[in-house]
Amino acid sequence: MENLGALAILLAFCLSLFAVAASLAGKYGRRPFLAVSGERAVYSVWVLLTVAAGLLVYSLITGDFRIAYVQAHSDRAMSPLYKFTAWWGGQEGSLLLWSWILASYSAVAVWTSRRKFRNMMPIVIAILMTTQAFFTGLITFVLSPFHVLMAGNGIISVPDGRGLDPLLQWWTMAIHPPMLYLGYVGSIVPFAFAMASLVTRQPGEGWIHTTRRWAIVTWLFQTTGITLGMGWAYTVLSWGGYWGWDPVENASLMPWITATAFLHSVMMQEKKGMMKIWNMVLVSATFLLSILGTTLTRTGLVASVHAFAQSPIKPYFTTFLLTALVLVIVAISTNLKFLKSESKLESVVSRESSFLFNNLILLASCFAILWGTLFPVIMEALTNEKETIDTPYYLRVEVPIALFLLFLTGVGPLIAWRKSSLDSLRRAFLVPTLVGIAVAAGLGFGGIHHIAALTAFGLAAFVTTTILREFWKGSRSIQTKESMPLPKAAFELTWRNTRRYGGYLVHLGIVAMFVGFTGSAFNLHVVQNLGLGQTTRFGHYDIKLSSVNDGSNDNYEFSHAALEIRRHGRQIALLEPEIRLYKASQSQNTIVGLRRALNEDLYVVYSGVLPDGSKATFQFYQLPLVSWIWIGFWIVLFGTLICLVPSKVRYQYARTEVVGIASKPATVQS
Amino acid sequence: MIIVLAVALTIGILVFTLFIRAQDVPEPAPVSPFQHLEDRKAAIYENLRDLQFEYRVGKLSDADYQQTKLTLQKELAGVLAEIEETAKRLGVMTRRSAPPAPKQQPAKPAPQPEAPMCPHCGAKFSGPMKFCGECGKAMAS
Amino acid sequence: MPVSLRRCSLRLVATFFLSFACLLAQDPTSVMTPGVARVGDHLACRCGVCRNTVATCPMLHCEYSGPMRARIKGMQDQGVTDQNIIKTVVKEQGVVALAAPPAEGWGLFTWVMPGVALLLGFLVYSWWVRRNRPEPKAVSDADRALLDRFRGQIETEMGESDTAGGGPNGKK
Q: In angstroms, rounded to a whole number, what is the distance separating the alpha carbons of residues C72 and C78?
């Protein structure tokens, strides 16, 4: 079994190399059959990796404890779902998942574009398969998931495995890694197309039309993956937060930021043929940052919460990353002429300019994160002096940037493409600005004096007003023109330009998320000891400890507390936080008592019992507006899905067709 | 058993990858030399549509609308001229195909006006024009 | 004292707290004073599991933040100022104990670089704007001739797809 799996991966590695060679030879040696063979190799790699992955999952589910990976990441007591997710529970399996997703994306990309871009495909395949060869090479020669446990010269089997970390036995955690991987691995497809169009010097923006859907889908996966991670941290890690600015979290955020920038600036290339170099840079940055993210996560380059041990693959990753970086720089800098802009900027006050500005700010925030993540490493290498860069740095640097971005989110739709005069600006900005100021002022008089928070709420109102007005004006126009009821007109409006109005919905979701983040400025946190039956006042809640029980089951021992939550004398919730001690892994875990509401969450962590046994210790958190983060995510999801629906009407224009060779000076019938 | 599977897998994969029959190699699809210009043209038409829409919902002042419209039309004219250039340079005859009908509504064939002909050089055009696209002289006779 | 609480998990208490024996002497609520939080906000929690500050580390029995809080409390009780407490800790462990590096020496780089990057971005932006700005000139005669030459085609092509598509933005 394990031999078959290892063989499949080895074959996949060889075939990836073959695909690279065959495609390039096919293209430059003008041998079409070699190019076709290269395409076939892509499908073969997918089949082989699917076989390998299937075998690993089979071993996990049947509990084949001869295999080291199975022993290290699963045990008999785990449910089949978590046995399945143990596929990506460890280093080797994660890399296999990476390769498998890459193989799947490659196969789909080749299948869907093989006819349309015959000229470009060999290069696309070469790029995809070079990366594939790197990853399959790693799991073939360095970190094989199919290593067996050996004692002397014999294979041994152990009775049970060590199990999956209980913190990871949680549904959001089960799908968080594959979601992120789908996002990050996916970024390679637009990258491959972009580079191929550069190398083969395709005229026009063909690669953009082909890859923009990819870009949106992978962006959605990234967003989902990050949000799942936040949701998991919030409900499982019991520290009342969802984002810790850990290197691995930062690593996942950086490619997301560049992908967001790309999704915006790509519109300028589609509409006006501008910013071609810039888009190349963004698409490459997204790919390189995804690889960097994998490097950070997988090699322990930077000390991180997501403590993966120092592993032998660090030099490989670093080499791959640096080589790719150099190649990208060479490819772009030698083709600058080809990337020349086709049109000019008509005015500084224009949508184009605001897009560029938004890109600039996004990249600045990405750089600040990258800097905070890597500078301690650089500094230690240079000066041998250690420093810590924690949350305070990120808050101080990122909050102003984020507020400015929020502002631009509202400004963008208000400025017209190409040129906006003062008159147009006045029309567009008056109402949203007034609403924003009114909201901020109202909240200020209402007793909120946190400047950043007031700004954030004011801007959120500003952006929401602009977006709602966009929908309102558009719908009204359709309503009057085609005399249909307003809701139907709004639906019609969205359907006619799904990308634009879906995009606005995404903005609305982002605003909701920002409102949720802003709530953290008003968090309350206390530590409190409570005896049985004792009541304490926290925020606007009265909290009474009604019982404490302990017990044990197959999997863990536990201590369980029950707290009655009252407000204005009426019981509104019964929270039951718990402490668990898992038997297999001997690790401790707390289960949070959580009451979610739109205005604020009440979050209770049971921390243990005082040494004399008289009282139990609790941490109470009052976390305003957190729910809006998750609501915002659902809006983003919905909006992105709308973007992916094809618009109702696709205009077609008269095309020029070649009908024959002109014998004398051409007769052109226009 | 495992060995048989392994051998079968290996052989299967190799056969699939390496044995390419002649009919598996597709004919290279003809690429229109006008493709990217047509794309560009379509993009500008879309920009014009967007502009009209934004003007209608009141986001633009009259002056902005007129000016941007003119810029866009100028760009369009540039692209159309380039299409002609290209055709001349390649020495091919071209014709303007009617746009494929969108799926939403079965298209009623747009009534084609009588094709105007240049009184000076005899070139035919599908739409009314002030000046001939070929010789540049006034079309009005 | 409530019976159920005392019965509660002697075993658990043992497993949870034996390793943190130093903490057992102290009720965790007693060292979470506002003063401790004030100082703790400047110090990184170095337990290696979180990225919080000593003030915000949620693990009451954290191996690093717990004793550190107790120490800060102790020093404050002796009348040591906040600044001096931080200085003492930095002297012992180096700047690595601070939650964010000080804005001096190498640490200055940390704070300056994002600003420099932003500035650089603005420069590139203004360069780009200047480079891409067309000379403001009226529509030239050549342009007008070109436009006139193709106006008919442009209008028919827009119009054609309009009648075929019945789009939202067609001619009024």
A: 10
In this complex, is the C-beta atom of B4 within 8 Å of any C-beta atom belonging to chain A?
no
Q: Is A302 exposed, middle or buried (0-12, 13-18, 19+ CB in 10 A)?
A: middle
Residues A541 and A492 in one domain: no
Question: Is C45 a residue whose pLDDT tops 60?
Answer: yes
> Is A319 found in the same domain as A207?
yes
Low-confidence residues of chain A, pLDDT below 50? 307, 664-670
Cα–Cα distance list, C98 to A247, A551, C39 (Å): 17, 41, 11
Per-residue pLDDT of C18-28, as tens digits, reads 333 333 345 66
Report which of A654, C162, A341 is spatially closest to residue B38, judged by C-alpha positions. A654
Whether A241 is covered by a domain: the verdict is yes
Please indicate, yes or no, whether residues A245 and A278 belong to a single structural domain of this protein: yes
Q: What is the pLDDT of residue A286?
A: 94
Task: Pick B20's closest partner by Cβ from A4, A11, A37.
Answer: A37
- Architecture of domain C3-97 in this structure: Orthogonal Bundle (1.10)
- What is the pTM (predicted TM-score) of this model? 0.85
CA distance C136 to chain B (A): 12
Q: Are A86 and A76 in contact (CB under 8 A)?
A: no
pLDDT of C33 strictly over 60? yes
Domain limits for position A304? 169-370+399-409
Cα(A92)–Cα(A67) distance, rounded to whole angstroms? 12
Contact (Cβ atoms closer than 8 angstroms) between residue A377 and residue A301: yes
Q: What is the ipTM of this complex?
A: 0.75
pLDDT of the residue at C28:
66
Q: Do B77 and C139 touch (CB under 8 A)?
A: no
> Which pLDDT score, from 0 to 100, does residue B131 have?
59
